[in-house]
Design goal:
Length: 80
Amino acid sequence: MFAVSSDDEQLIARVAALDIGKAEVVCCVRLPGPGGRRVQEVTTHSTMVGSLSDLANRLVEPPRVSCRSYAGCGAGFRAA
């Protein structure tokens, strides 16, 4: 049964979503773009320490993302 939530709606300008699999992680970053539109970048990283470290650095370096979402063992993200 769903419960009624009293949370305020929040729009997040800089967001990243991660699809975590056994051998790879797919990352989709969406940022504000020119003219009020959004830009998106989809990258694939192996689950080896060096590649995951590069991904972590990418998410905290400018332009920083302010919210991250995770999903496990999915089919991945597709660019629009």
